[in-house]
Design goal:
The structure is a homodimer. Chain A is an alpha/beta fold and about 375 residues long. In chain A, about 40% of the residues lie in helices and about 20% in strands. Chain A is globular, with a radius of gyration of 20 Å.
Chain lengths: ~375, ~375
Amino acid sequence: MSIESNIKYKKIKIDGNARLGQIHTQRGIINTPAFIPVGTNATVKAMNQDELKELGAEIILSNTYHLYLRPGHEVIKKLGGLHKFMNWQGPILTDSGGFQVFSLSPLRKITGDGVTFKSHLDGSTHFITPEIVMEIQGALGSDIAMAFDECTPYPATREYALNSLDLTTRWAKRCLDAKNENQALFGIVQGGTYTDLRKQSAQQLIELDFDGYALGGLSVGEPKGLMYEITNYTTLLLPEDKPRYLMGIGDLLDVLEAVSAGIDLFDCVMPTRNARNGTLFTSRGRISIKREEFKADSSPLDPDCGCYTCKNYSKAYLRHLFMNKEILSMRLNTFHNVYFYLEFFKKMRKAINSGTFDNFRKEQTVILQNNFNEG
Amino acid sequence: MSIESNIKYKKIKIDGNARLGQIHTQRGIINTPAFIPVGTNATVKAMNQDELKELGAEIILSNTYHLYLRPGHEVIKKLGGLHKFMNWQGPILTDSGGFQVFSLSPLRKITGDGVTFKSHLDGSTHFITPEIVMEIQGALGSDIAMAFDECTPYPATREYALNSLDLTTRWAKRCLDAKNENQALFGIVQGGTYTDLRKQSAQQLIELDFDGYALGGLSVGEPKGLMYEITNYTTLLLPEDKPRYLMGIGDLLDVLEAVSAGIDLFDCVMPTRNARNGTLFTSRGRISIKREEFKADSSPLDPDCGCYTCKNYSKAYLRHLFMNKEILSMRLNTFHNVYFYLEFFKKMRKAINSGTFDNFRKEQTVILQNNFNEG
């Protein structure tokens, strides 16, 4: 009945609950834990596709909501799909657009059947259903599609969270029924901050049998401790032979916690957005490149970093470009931050492989708490 | 008395008045006629320095006025000069800041000694003299410095133009007296649209003996015909054994005319600024990438172009990036336009070398007048 999955998860090593693995896809292997750079509009902001490849990105994310509105999924389909459109040969994951409908649209109305919303671009009215979301993702031709869900807000009453997860489960089933060939489909566990509801959601989705499972509705305003608790609790409920994806989370402190819990996939705009705002990650902690002290500093941003930016340009030059709002500032900063993230994930994988993830986590937690911005 | 020039012009071939030549500098050879990409703030907008090299740029321009205000020439000097600051090993030409003082400053007051002006960045008041301008350019360490001049506006009365050129000559002499070691210095011919004043200015500067000569005060609002007349007339007055530079002009129709007149060097923001505005140069004429007809156009921008943009991305993708104001749009467009300009100059040099420049000029004039933007 169900279409054979076009991806396969291989567990390589376990260290505590942390997992070293690989997701095999038709377009290449994704070594996990993996960071997925975010290319909302079919472009990871300020980078080109060759640079992403050069940096070792093994998968990127693109947004169903944005591409549906502009240029339109039919246009991309006509052009041979998203890979060809943006000239990226590696795997692509598309989110379902659910999160954007709820976070970007100035107006939305949910019925059992679907959602009516207004475009944040031109105010035009659109109606999407789980079936339409699958059609859009099919037209885009991503390697991994996400089921259409309602992202339960925080705080939410138990009643709201329960109704919301019921809706998500019903929509998940409809997505599965409309699944595209040659495309993996992940279900999204909701349930707010109620562990029993998370369990209920996970069980219902597992029964439906997806190619992978995501945790949704986290990092939406709840306290960190609660986020960690729900992540730890829910991840352990998920099947061991399928990828596990924590959506939209990329603060590296959270990543360390979630990898410890057994999460494999992460996406976040943090490295790219921070880069454009001048906040840069280094092996000694975060720094803001605009600080006056860097005005005549001829040293590289991070002496321990091997990226193009650190090998070729000084902090003084980076500061100068940032102060002048130069495009090259956004380019060099983004290149560095994405490099830093991908290296960080490599180091996590190495630590899991050598059974030292817990030490790595403790060590990095101290460094990541260094924030020279306020120093 | 005068410091030995650190550059040498070698004439290779003459075709009519068009010249094929080379400028030998300590940092490499510039094949002329040459296009100088503009890097106002020590960055050619949207490009990195390796890309400039990859595209074959043999010299770039940077702005004394901008770098004096931010980050300050003392900072750049402390960091080892402009080449080291921006990590560009090829020749750099710095303009004197004269043009920017007159075009960007909200307030300026000229005395015989120098100019008082207000910064367009923060309104702070500054006073610069020819000696200070030479000190700044010395601190930047450019290979070619420009004398401080007054850019005569259009229209200007004969009296204004005469007084202005007198001032420019007096300042030119003071710049020569303050000339830096290891730095060539070009004088700037003024005189407005009066041929006799252009002659007077040229003669006075030639007598002072500069390393090269520029035509200033053109493309400041005068009719094209008048600009061509003054360019043709003045260029013939300049020494044959020195480089000739037409400042700030880059419309390729004007370039063809000026190369015919014997001009060797050009700088202009046209390829880079147009790129950011979505206007792209192709072998068939200019096009605006935002046009609706490109929405689903899978063909490259220019099928005859070998640049990274044309080899990797479709018009549909370029249009999509432009409509979404993506940074990659500015990158890919800029890369293409600068490639186009540098290729155009290569073709001009080839045509001069084979004695067919006049044919090339006629042929290209027809193509350059194709503007599909309004088509």
